[in-house]
Amino acid sequence: MLRRKNKKTGSGASGSDVSELPKIDFKPPIADKQVEQGVLIACRSMPQWPATLTLLAQAIDNRAEQILLDYSKQAVAVRLRIDGLWEALPPMDRPTGDGVLVALKKLCDLNPADRRSKQQAVLPLKYKGVDWLMDFTSQGVPTGERVLLRLEPKKPVLTTLADLGMRKKMQDQLRDLLNASEHLFLFSAPPGHGLPTTWRVGLEAADRFVRDFHSVEDVHLREPELINITKHLYDSQAGETPMKVLKSLLLKQPDVLVFPDLVNEEVCQLMCGEVKEEGRTVITRLQAASAVEALLKLLARFKSCSKDLVKITSGVLNQRLLRRLCVECRKPFQPSPQLLQKLGIPPGRVQTLYQPTIAPPPEKRVDANGRPIEIEICGKCGGRGYYGRAAIFELLVINDEIRKAILNDPRPASVLAVARKNGFLTLQEEGILAVATGMTSLQELQRILTPPKKA
Ligand SMILES: [Zn+2]
Questions:
Q1: How many CA atoms does the CB half-sphere of 96 hold within 13 Å?
Q2: Domain spans of the chain?
Q3: Confidence of residue 17 (pLDDT cuts 50, 70, 90)
Q4: What is the average pLDDT across 292-309?
């Protein structure tokens, strides 16, 4: 069973606990109001309804972006993803976990009896005055069933490049690049590092009010709606490609063409021609660990147009998400001259760096004799030492010297060397700036720059 959080009521003896339950308003995606009401009434009468509400409230109260439920024969493992890291909660027993899942599937208008096929739906809900969208996915796996709930505020919280953590000078550079004509610009990040968010915020930072923006998207990608960007959809599952909409779209003389994916050589070739001959701008994205890698990946993927791509690509943005230090409990320390030298920070520039205060896990909160000791836990971050996330960015601005280097020797190390000679700061260097300002810790920077271990 999940422990109930915030059990503050003094009168614990009161028989009914309905008033103690978190108040969540669900808006099941069901058109018929009467059916909707029936579903809500049925759910409320289930013995596992309190556990369902408690799980969701606990996740949102702890700022979890995802909840993972793993059903095995004996129990249900429960994990929350907070600031990008998974935290385990006490497991639920099967009767409780099964009931929670039935309630969630009913609310999502899915089939509770089907524990095998992949089922997916979006459930809007309101909690503490904030509207949320809960993206529900369940899927049978060899050990049982796996359920992933993604929680997202309905109204995006991050709306500007500054919100994402981008420094002012880079914001201006990026805007200048995006607002130029006759070029291609590339957004990139490794999986799970916030590329869709930066893609949205980056596009919103461009001059959509002056120029005519059109995006060409696979209908199954479910990209967000952006003001002043006209969407043109194709259906990849029906074998369609962007070519389906491009011919008629190009007749409209768009200024900027936005592609979450360029899909194939035919599309890429057509777009290279549009940039060179018509002066249009193309903006696209792909997953990569660095700006240089992203550029080389683009060239490798569309070999037949790689020469054109080198010519027209003006810049690549790459990013990594890191946790922000909790400002309530971060601990200052004076870095040694050796440490500053290692970080490449000039002497005298930074007097103080910060490290997180991380509370030991409950089982370790004991003295030498094994007696429990009281440890003060930070009320803001809950003893995690971090609160919220930001991105660090590297922006590769491509000039003719870098173009020549790519054509001569397209190995990542040699392209990077020429880029650095031209003022390019890597993620590592940008990250050290973030450490120097106290936004994050050295440990966290190290963590996110270490390549993930292959499972
Ligand atoms: Zn704290």
A1: 19
A2: 22-153, 161-323+389-449
A3: low
A4: 97
- Mean predicted lDDT score pLDDT of the chain: 92
Q: What is the CATH topology of the domain spanning 22-153?
A: Beta-Lactamase (3.30.450)
Check for a shared fold between 22-153 and 161-323+389-449: no
Give the C-alpha distances (Å, rounded to integers) separating 55 from 1, 148, 261, 412. 10, 13, 36, 46
Positive/negative CA dihedral, 26, 31, 32, 35 = negative
11, pLDDT greater than 50: no
Contact (Cβ atoms closer than 8 angstroms) between residue 26 and residue 57: no
Output the CA 356–ligand 1 centroid distance in Å: 8
DSSP helix/strand/coil, 295: helix
Distance 80 CA to ligand 1 centre (A): 18
Q: Where are the beta strands (DSSP E) in 108-212?
A: 119-127, 130-141, 144-153, 183-189
pLDDT tens-digit profile of 78-118? Answer: 999 999 999 999 999 999 999 999 999 999 999 999 999 99
Ligand 1 center to 358 CA (angstroms)? 8
User: How far, CA to CA in Å, does 193 sit from each of 289, 319, 333?
Assistant: 10, 7, 29
Report how far apart, in Å, the C-alpha atoms of 399 and of each of 12, 34, 173, 202, 214 are: 69, 63, 14, 21, 27
Under the banding of pLDDT at 50, 70 and 90, the label for residue 454 is low
- For domain 161-323+389-449, give the fold: Rossmann fold (3.40.50)
- Distance (angstroms) between ligand 1 centre and the Cα of 9 equals 25
CB 72 within 8 A of CB 144: yes
